[in-house]
Amino acid sequence: MTRADAARPLVSLIFPAYNEVENAPAMVDFFREIVAAYPAYDFEMIVVDDGSTDGTAEALLALAYAGEPLQVVSLSRNFGSHAAISAGFAHAAGDAAITLSADRQEPLSAIGQFLDEWTAGADLVWGLRAVRVQQQAVQGRFSRLFSVVFHRTSDVPSYPAEGPSQLLATRAVMDVVNAMPEANRNVLAMAAWVGFDQRRVYYDQLPRPYGVSKWTFRRKLKLVFDSFVEFSRTPVKWFTWVGLTLAGVGALLLIAALVMALLGLGGAAGVAAICGTVCLVGGINLVALGMLSEYTWRTADDARRRPIYVVKQVRRAGAADRSAIKK
């Protein structure tokens, strides 16, 4: 990318997008607002089209001016938002990158907060929502609970307990994340694991102008498993302690049932206690085996070394198409 003033820092704005054709004009307009509001920086816009089928990429390119620093990285299918962010990092030319939502939920002032903290020396700036837009009550509580538990039990305590929404990552952070080979990834936790100087900014989330979020409960649940498997052994430790506790309770119940049998008391109650103990312990064993299988599966998945995503096409405003395969 040709830069007008190489002395100005270059910031890559990364928008993961999946079937966001309605929000294409808002994304481009937001990029132009940022460029106009912060003239001390150069900006490039990178939209990672995560397997859209509604013409999102074509709509964005049609809105761009010839030579505008906008590129669309089209993936061969839907790989998920964290793989899309990884693709954005790999294609970013900036001294720093800011992730943003395709549904235009970050205010313009948040960009200034990110840039101010970066200028002050931060390597990683977490964007946290002081006010969240309305979401389903169960999913909202689930997301907050995950962030709190993960913050307390994982190997990355710098991961915000409030639950990060977006982030600014410097070139140093991006280079380390780009070198990480995990196939099942929480790219935010990976960035937190890197270390360096990490700071926080808070902003009010804006309502989504069009459509519905593609961040479904199923995707969130997969992220929970990916995060704990990659960064925490706490679930396995939980089951170890639960297993030891249940084994002790089961032993006591068996002794109690034996005593009652010798005294001729409550044979039916003793049988029920034994059966209940067996069922409970068996259920816990099955859950524990399921958890261990999640670890085993992800270990095998990483060992296969398949690409994290596949790039079908990279297009720049007014430039020729390119194709590549990227990890």
Describe the structure.
- The chain is an alpha/beta fold and 327 residues long.
- It folds into two domains: 10-232 and 306-316, Spore Coat Polysaccharide Biosynthesis Protein SpsA, Chain A (Alpha-Beta Complex); 234-304.
- Helix content is 50%, strand content 16%.
- The protein contains ten helices and eight strands.
- It has helices at 24-37, 56-63, 81-91, 108-119, 137-153, 171-179, 187-194, 217-231, 234-263, 267-304; strands spanning 10-17, 42-49, 70-75, 96-99, 124-131, 166-170, 198-204, 311-316.
- An eight-stranded mixed sheet has the order 7-5-6-4-1-2-3-8, sandwiched between helices.
- Helix 5 packs parallel to helix 8 and helix 6 (171-179) crosses helix 7.
- The protein is elongated.
- It starts with 9 loop residues before the first strand and ends in an 11-residue tail after the last strand.
Q: In a few lines, what is going on in this structure?
A:
This protein has about 325 residues and is of the alpha/beta class.
Main sheet makeup: 8 strands, mixed
Rounded Rg: 25 Å
State the CATH topology of the largest domain: Spore Coat Polysaccharide Biosynthesis Protein SpsA, Chain A
Helix content: 40-55%
Q: What best-fitting shape do the alpha-carbon axes yield?
A: elongated
The low-confidence parts are 320-326
CATH class of the largest domain: Alpha Beta
Distance between the termini: 22 Å
Number of helices: 10
Q: Which structural class is indicated by helix and strand composition?
A: alpha/beta
Give the H and E element order: EHEHEHEHEHEHHEHHHE
Oligomeric state: single chain
In the sheet with the most strands, the strands line up as: 7-5-6-4-1-2-3-8
* CATH level-4 homologous superfamily of the largest domain: Spore Coat Polysaccharide Biosynthesis Protein SpsA, Chain A
